[in-house]
Amino acid sequence: MKRILLPLLLLLLAATASRAQTPAAPAPAAAAAQMKDGRMLALKNGQLTPLTADLTLANGATVSPAGVMRLPTGQTMPLREGEQVTTSGMVVPAPMPTARRMSRANKHVTKGMMKPMP
Questions:
Q1: Which of 21, 35, 65, 77 is the most buried (most CB within 10 A)?
Q2: Does the keyword ATP-binding belong to this entry (predicted)?
Q3: 103-104-107 Cα angle (round to 5)
Q4: How close are the terminal C-alpha atoms of the chain, in Å?
Q5: 71 near 61, Cβ under 8 Å?
């Protein structure tokens, strides 16, 4: 009995140890600032607040309250309406609200039949 139980116990421990060492997936970069209604807003504690001072990002870029991002190379890049800057310094489009995505998708459906998209 001990001959069977010991190998099973070792196999169970090895399987548990290998699962514990699996690295977790990296979390997506959070938005640091967003241009909305012509104003730069910073994300602090889950709330969008007006950006009042320059915001320095992880890559060394800075975002000004006027909506201009200065890269570490010295180049400047104005942010357009709806663009977000991540904490790592990437510029991405702001996510569309769910209701708007659905209304855009519904434009191509008429009376239950799909229209060909242009």
A1: 35
A2: no
A3: 85
A4: 72
A5: yes
